[in-house]
Input
Amino acid sequence: ISSAQPLVARLAGIRPPRYGDLFEALVCVVPFQQVSLDAGMAVLGRLAWKYGPALEFEGTRLVGVPAPEVIAEARISDLRATGLSTSKAECLRSAAREIVEGQLASDDLARLSTAEATKRLRALKGIGPWSANLILLRGFGRLDAFPPGDVGVARGLSRITGRALTPSDCVALGERLPGAGGWLYFLSLAAQLVDRGLIAGISREEFATS
Output
């Protein structure tokens, strides 16, 4: 994908961003299942405002990701009021309870291979291949995990490569990068952030002298 080289050059030194812990990864993945990025962000924001920790800073109220102990005790109807579907609300509450009860732990997942960890996550109610791989990629830094079926990633990589790629094409492309297919996800995400002016990127020369 030589057409991506200019973008790659602008992103010299980028590091894969990770969520703080397993439940944060779940909370930041489940609301985005089969919805647009903007719709998922809106639901995530309402979850944080309703259930997350808050503090005041220079007159501004800041909120964080809810703790599993809080979501484990939440009513499904209240979770649905944030915009979650019933299945997504049940997924988050069920996962929260497993974490609180010690049945699901980051350390245990970290000791598993990516294939085994994917299987364990898919045993959770409401977690499919896309969610499991994205949790491992964004929550554990598993760069060999690639979320299949992601239309947004396919659209982003199509724009970068100048080729009309389907989600299946993207999975096949990721398989050509053993152990590093997840970088394609981050490349697509970074491209969208650059397009929106949210990150500027620097040249290789600027990075080398920084």
In short: The chain has a mean pLDDT of 89.
